[in-house]
């Protein structure tokens, strides 16, 4: 067996974030046990889908546009979007189980039914998303990795941007929010060469959020700590 693969056949993908944080409450365990199955977008993991057969998105959300939120954290923005746009099918992706549990609580309260959840790494989801299947993608406050030697762990690198381009439709919108100036630099340098165009004037000013924006836990922390949110919009060429 090649050293670069798991027994399931999955390629070895370094993941530097956290899968688990503080204790998960009993109620949250119950959400994870009972709700995740029915919210699945289909077989994403290498164990369930070793041949990487593309997901049947039309069966998941018949005749709807599909939007994706990468790294939804506690799910504030994702649930807000699902409520605001009931005719859209939304997929959320987050490997941090405490965040997934928080999202599930919010889904129960909001009673939204146009959401699917992949509780894992977006790279595994990219593998099984059909070409040109997404009409909008949100990347809200991706992990900043401030040290120069860690910049290659950031989302805005070829490992993520090449499959992201493949799964987005022509003209689809990519929204990136970040409070880290050097992340803005790397985003503006890396995203356009992967087949995206920066919509410099949309929103009108990079300091003004999108009209349908919902602030997130991470953004609130950034504001408390005196950092400035930046909102960048790209379209897929
Ligand atoms: C700084 S947090 C921001 C969370 C949330 N978007 C917010 O604004 O509050 C970044 C999130 O990205 C998630 N993340 C990191 N790597 C990821 C990956 N490969 N696939 C999906 N999510 C990822 C992390 O687990 C974390 O929850």
TrEMBL record:
Q: Which PROSITE patterns match?
A: SAM_MT_TRMB
Q: Which Pfam families match?
A: Methyltransf_4
For the ligand (substrate), the binding residues are: 147, 179, 216-219
Q: What Enzyme Commission number(s) appear in the record?
A: 2.1.1.33
Q: Where does S-adenosyl-L-methionine bind?
A: 69, 94, 121, 143
Listed GO MF terms: tRNA (guanine(46)-N7)-methyltransferase activity
* UniProtKB keywords: Methyltransferase, S-adenosyl-L-methionine, Transferase, tRNA processing
Question: Quick one: a GO cellular component term?
Answer: tRNA methyltransferase complex
Q: In which pathway does it act?
A: tRNA modification; N(7)-methylguanine-tRNA biosynthesis
Q: Which reaction does it catalyse?
A: guanosine(46) in tRNA + S-adenosyl-L-methionine = N(7)-methylguanosine(46) in tRNA + S-adenosyl-L-homocysteine
Name the protein family: Belongs to the class I-like SAM-binding methyltransferase superfamily. TrmB family.
Function as written in the Swiss-Prot or TrEMBL entry: Catalyzes the formation of N(7)-methylguanine at position 46 (m7G46) in tRNA.
Full protein name: tRNA (guanine-N(7)-)-methyltransferase
Protein source organism? Yoonia rhodophyticola
Q: Which gene encodes it?
A: trmB
């Amino acid at each position: 067996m090649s050293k670069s693969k798991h027994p399931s056949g999955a390629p070895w993908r370094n993941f530097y974030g956290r899968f688990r944080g503080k204790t998960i409450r009993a109620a949250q365990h119950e959400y994870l046990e009972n709700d995740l199955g029915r919210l699945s977008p289909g077989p994403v993991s290498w164990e369930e889908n070793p041949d990487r057969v593309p997901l049947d998105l039309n069966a998941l959300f018949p005749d709807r546009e599909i939007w994706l939120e990468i790294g939804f954290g506690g799910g504030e923005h994702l649930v807000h979007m699902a409520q605001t746009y009931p005719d859209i099918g939304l997929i959320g992706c987050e490997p941090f189980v405490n965040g997934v549990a928080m999202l599930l609580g919010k889904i129960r309260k909001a009673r939204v039914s146009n959401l699917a959840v992949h509780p894992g790494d977006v790279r595994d989801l990219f593998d099984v998303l059909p070409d040109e299947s997404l009409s909008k993608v949100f990347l809200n406050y991706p992990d900043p990795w401030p040290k120069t030697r860690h910049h290659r762990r950031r989302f805005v690198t070829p490992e993520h941007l090449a499959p992201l381009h493949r799964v987005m439709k022509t003209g689809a919108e990519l929204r990136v929010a970040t409070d880290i100036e050097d992340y803005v630099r790397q985003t503006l340098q890396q995203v356009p060469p992967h087949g995206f165009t920066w919509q410099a004037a949309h929103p009108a000013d990079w300091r003004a959020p999108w009209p349908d924006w919902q602030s997130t836990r991470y953004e609130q922390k950034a504001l408390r700590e005196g950092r400035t949110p930046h909102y960048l919009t790209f379209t897929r060429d």
